[in-house]
Amino acid sequence: MTTWLITGTSSGFGRHLTELLLERGDTVAGTLRDPSRLDDLAARHGDRLWKRALDVTDTARVREVVDQAFADLGRVDVVVSNAGYGLFGAAEELSDAQVERQLATNVTGSIALVRAAVPHLRRQGGGRVLQVSSMGGQTAFPGMSAYHASKWAVEGFFEALAPELAPFGILTTLVEPGMARTGFGGASADVAPALAAYAGTPAAELVRGPGLPLEAMPGDPRRMAAAMVRVAELADPPRRQALGSDADATIRAVLQQRLLDMDAHRDIALSTDADDVLGRPVAA
Questions:
Q1: Which of 10, 134, 138, 239 could form a disulfide with 32 if both were Cys (CB 3.0 to 4.6 A apart)?
Q2: How far apart are CA 176 and CA 179, in angstroms?
Q3: Overall domain count for the chain
Q4: The domain that contains 210 carries what CATH number?
């Protein structure tokens, strides 16, 4: 059986992953700010659930908990960096503290987790890392600038990290879910106080409008969790894996539009090379 370390297991994808893995007989090291929220699973699955309190913004504690998990369990096959949350509001509406918390949780916390796990994974001869990102790691919507900043940042980190770790048998995948019926954006979201100047603008419409009802969101979180398990067990996992029809359509559209935008002004890009590259005589 496989051993997993998962952050943010109190709800959403983290909770679904933990339930699925325990049901099939795996061992899970689950971390969350309030471990009592896993008491029901601990009662059913006993010592196959190892749980610890962890706020990923406490980077020293991240390293301590990761070290404990590997020491107690002997080996961790898959690390899932899942802890995170959404901050909503126009950039001007956000407070400094809100922006700092968004980046500390979604970016610094994710980086700290992976950096703490890599020495253990390398010493044991390999492993898998899943970083839960979002379709918002490849596209962006008004009213979510800080959230997108966090997801784009972590995707850039993993883009560079993947070839660093591949020689050690450590394979990484960025998981990019679309809208899922997890309650994301509900009570757990952080919404900035409104500024009157933004009334009626795209940011206000997205953040303060009626929003989509849960049943209008296409993603089934339990199926998405099961898909993450399948990806982690592939012999050659993808560097990126979209989840959900909306994520697939949105990411494809934005990538195609970027190429069209580049093509439209490609002459400007190419005009900036040095004379010897352009085949022109080089001035004496």
A1: 10
A2: 10
A3: 1
A4: 3.40.50.720
Determine if the pTM surpasses 0.90: yes
Active-site annotation holds for 95: no
Choose the catalytic residue: 81, 133, 145, 150. Answer: 133
d(CA 165, CA 137): 21
pLDDT tens digits in sequence order for the chain, 284 residues long = 899 999 999 999 999 999 999 999 999 999 999 999 999 999 999 999 999 999 999 999 999 999 999 999 999 999 999 999 999 999 999 999 999 999 999 999 999 999 999 999 999 999 999 999 999 999 999 999 999 999 999 999 999 999 999 999 999 999 999 988 886 655 457 999 999 999 999 999 988 887 666 667 788 999 999 999 999 999 999 999 999 999 999 999 999 999 999 999 999 999 999 989 888 777 66
Catalytic residue among 110, 145, 151, 198: 151
- Within a domain: 284: no
CA distance 207 to 117: 36
- The verdict on whether 198 is a catalytic residue reads no
